[in-house]
Amino acid sequence: MESKELLKIGTVIESASNLIMIRIEDDETFEKNKHEIQIGKYLQIKEGNHNYVICVIQSIKINDDNRKYIINSQPIGVFSEDFKQGSSILPSPTEEVFIVSEAIMSKIFSKDSNYSFKFGELIQNRDINLHINGNSFFSKHIAVVGSTGSGKSCTVAKILQDVVGINKKTNLNNGSQKNAHIIIFDIHSEYKSAFEIESKENFNLNALDVDKLKLPYWLMNSEELESLFIESNEQNSHNQVSQFKKAVTLNKEKHNPTLTKVNYDTPVYFSIEEVYNYISNMNEEVINKIEGEDQKPKLLDGTLIFDINSYFDKKLEFVTANTAKATKASNGAFNGEFNRFLSRLETKINDKRLDFLLQPNKADGTLYKTDDFEEIIKQFLGYLDKSNITIIDLSGVPFEVLSITVSLISRLVFDFAFHYSKLKHSIKELNDIPFLIVCEEAHNYIPKSGGAEYKASKKSIERIAKEGRKYGLSLMVVSQRPSEVSDTIFSQCNNFVALRLTNISDQNYIKGLLPNNANSITDILPTLSAGECLIVGDATPMPAIVQMEMPDPEPKSESIKFHSQWENEWKEVTFSEVITRWRKE
């Protein structure tokens, strides 16, 4: 491609590793090309006979002394036969600068065997579609950020609709079942409407809200159980932990006699009510001290307890501690220690809002037991009804167990992916059912800072961020406040989709995470329109600003029109219905 085919606008006057300064000589050239000379758009600079350095415009100003236009641009790569990001080649002063040609733009962003996933239209040229590398995009963790109203939910919905084949309310894969596996943590109940299409389209959506979700407490690991039931700041919390651990482990052994290796973390059934009985009995325990008799716990009727497992059956009545020689007995080691602990256990067990965790019954009314583990796992993975999309609706999950719920589900998915991968590796194959977990409004449960209430979810999601891709498990982290999300998680994201960001700390945070060749283009983030986004990372040939299509159907993310509603006539409310739902009646 010779320079005579290109539209020359100026020359290089200064060149550095991250800044190329360009001068436009006259008003006529600037005015004629004003539409193409805008912040965020591209230029090409001649370097040798066949190479061009591709730059993104960073700023434009006019020199008051000589009325020349000065453009500051950042080099992002080199185009020869094809485009390569980054470059040790930089143009010298006096080299010619051109508006980037449509031929080069088409070549850079064109669809090929690697770059085949259509992402959107280039803002610079709406006739050119950006195609990204789907494998690099979905396997290397994705961050989607944008302020409220920037089109974040619609962007996420459109990306996922394209993956599973939903377009204009139709299922493009009608008649066949593709192998996509996506799990969405939906904190505001927005996404169900984006994947509900007519039954004739044969698209199965696995939507699990707090009423359908079955997440038995016995699947929790030690950290999650202690987070739910034990106050770590209480003076005797170490005693609570030791006796709770002992009770849970013994109860797991009691209910799973055929298993040889059972520990505190083994995901098998135990009865939380029986554990409550055990702790209650430890709290009331009185030990026989009569000389010549066994020093065992002693009941009111004189019976001595030789098998500690009997503590699980019911709350027992012990003799009263006394010093008389004939009836001598003294309080057990934990007598009176667990009054507050028991009160908290009882409150949690009887809390109707936590039934999905503590009282999760099957359709026939029976409890989920160890043998139901497979059905529970299939529920989250979409394998009960062959669903490409599983939505975990967290809007009805009480805040105090939000972290535990996210932690438990994501950990179960990770463990499944880990063990499935190991089985495939044993026969010299790779995981062939990769999963994507979408963390919507991630700052609510994987924050940068926060107390013990976030410990469980942060640990599980951070583990996926650091190790998940090795086992076919990837993350899409979505947030309107990226500066408040765990650094560990964002630092592992190799692809960023940034919509309008108005908060200066969020803008600076994202700028610090992006590769050097995209720093300048982030200055455009506050000025993006709804649905416009900057995509940067391994999946795109170079940083680009694109317009996303609207999803169809759309997520239910539209804001309530306050003033319009206030202008309407007074509306009556059936308070009894609201209160019934509130009470979980």
**What is the number of helices?**
16
Structurally, the number of domains stands at 3
General shape: elongated
Q: Tally of extended strands?
A: 22
Give the N-terminus to C-terminus distance in angstroms.
73 Å
CATH fold description of the largest domain: Rossmann fold
Draw up the topology in text.
Elements: E1 8-16, E2 19-24, H1 27-32, E3 42-47, E4 51-63, E5 68-79, E6 83-85, E7 96-99, H2 102-109, E8 115-122, E9 129-133, H3 134-139, E10 142-145, H4 152-164, E11 166-167, E12 170-171, E13 182-186, E14 205-208, H5 222-229, H6 237-255, H7 272-284, E15 286-288, E16 329-331, H8 339-349, H9 355-358, H10 373-381, E17 389-393, H11 402-426, E18 435-439, H12 455-467, E19 473-479, H13 487-491, E20 495-498, H14 504-513, E21 532-537, E22 544-547, H15 562-567, H16 575-582
Parallel strand pairs: 10-19, 10-20, 13-17, 13-18, 14-17, 18-19
Antiparallel strand pairs: 1-2, 1-7, 2-5, 3-4, 3-7, 4-5, 5-6, 8-9, 8-22, 11-12, 15-16, 20-21, 21-22
Helix pairs in contact: 6-7, 7-8, 11-12
Give structural attributes:
585 residues, alpha+beta, Elongation Factor Tu (Ef-tu), domain 3, Rossmann fold, 3 domains, 11-stranded mixed β-sheet, 6-stranded antiparallel beta barrel, 16 helices, 21% strand
Fold and architecture overview:
- The radius of gyration is 31 Å and the shape is elongated.
- It is of the alpha+beta class and 585 residues long.
- The strands form 4 sheets. The chain has an 11-stranded mixed beta sheet. A 6-stranded antiparallel barrel has the order 1-2-5-4-3-7.
- Helix content is 28%, strand content 21%.
- It contains 16 helices and 22 strands.
